[in-house]
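Q: C-alpha cells for this one, please.
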Amino acid sequence: SIRKIPTMKKNYKHILLAISLFILLIGLTSCDTSSSLTAPGVTFSLTPANDPTQVTSGVQLLVLLTVLSLAPSILILGTSFTRIVIVLSMVRNAIGTPTIPPNQVVIGLSLLLTFFVMGPTYTQINQNSIQPFIQKQIDQQTALTNAIEPVREFMFKQTREKDIELFMEMGGIEKPATLADIPTSALFPAFVISELKTALTMGFLLYVPFLIIDLVVSSILLSLGMMMLPPSLVSLPFKLLLFVMVDGWYLITRSLMLSFSGG
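A: Here is the predicted structure, written as C-alpha cells:
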C-alpha cells in the first residue's frame, strides 16, 4: 500500500491538469468576437483602439500606475527619510530598548520630520510644476523638468562630490562643466550612499555616551563580583535617566534638522 501512494499522487496531478485544460477551453469558446469575459458582478472586455490618442492615454495611465507603485521607494531613497529613520533606529538600539518606541512610532516620526524637511522643496514643486500644469500653462515635459529641479537642488546639498564622481566614472560620463550637466541617474545613487554614510556617522556619535555607561556599569559589577548579573539590565535605567534628563528627543531632532539645513 505504501508503494501505491506516489502513483496516486501522479494520477491526481494528471486529473487536475485535465480539469484545468477543460475549464480553459470552455472559457475560450465562451468568448465572443469582442473579446469580453463576464462573471457574476464583473465584466472585462478588450476592444481595439481606433484612435491613436486612446493608445497614448492608455500608455500614460500605465506610466502613472508604475510611478505610483514606485512612490514609496522614491519617498524613502530620494528624501531625508533614510537618514532620519536610521538615526532614530540606532538611538533606540543604543538605549537598549529595541522595541520601544515601536516601529510604527519611529516610522511615523520619521515621516513627519521628512515632510518638515522637504516642505520647501514640495512647495517649489507645487508652485513651479503642479499648479501651472493643472492650469494648462505648461506642458507635461516642462512640468516634469520643473518638478525635478528642486529635488536635484536638495540632493546636491546633501551629496558628497566623491560619491558623484564615483557614479560618473562608473557610468562612463564625461566630467561635467556645471551641476546641470550631471545626470539624475548618477546623482540619485550618490545621494543615497551619502545619506547612509551621514546617518551611520551620526548614529555612531549617539552610541558613544550609552556605551560609556555600559562600560562603567560592567566595571562596577565585575569589581563587586556580580558576574552573573547582566550589565545591560543594570545600565538600562541609567541610560533612560540620562536620555530623559538631557531631553534626548529634542537634541536628536534638532541635530537632524540642522544637518539638513547646513548642507
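A few notes: The longest strand covers residues 36-39. DSSP finds ten helices and two strands in the chain.
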